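Our consortium's second objective concerns turning raw sequence data into structural hypotheses that experimental partners can test. To show how far this objective has progressed, the report includes one record in full. It was chosen at random from the queue rather than selected for favorable results. The single chain below, 96 residues long, was entered without modification.
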Amino acid sequence: MERKELAKIKRRVKTLHRQLGKLGPIMRGSVVALGANKQIRFSVNKNKKTQMIYLGRKREAKAKKWSENYKKLKEIVDEMTDLNMILIKNDYAEEA
């Protein structure tokens, strides 16, 4: 792979790294509405068990945003992994 292409990939990794710093609060899980009354809860699976907390309408938007931040985090990390694999495969040197 050409050095120009590798340098472009390295710049993209740096951009993604900056995006990570801007994400803000993160929560892994989902906002769900349960029951006949559609109670809003936050659900997360920890240690093979589902844990839920009641949110209500008041905290729903905040929990959704934090959950979306987690999804963005995963997307960024996945893309960074792909790009870093290319860089390491080509033995591209880190710049100080």
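The partners drew two points from this record. The mean pLDDT is 92. The radius of gyration is 19 Å. Both points have been shared with the crystallography group to help prioritize constructs.
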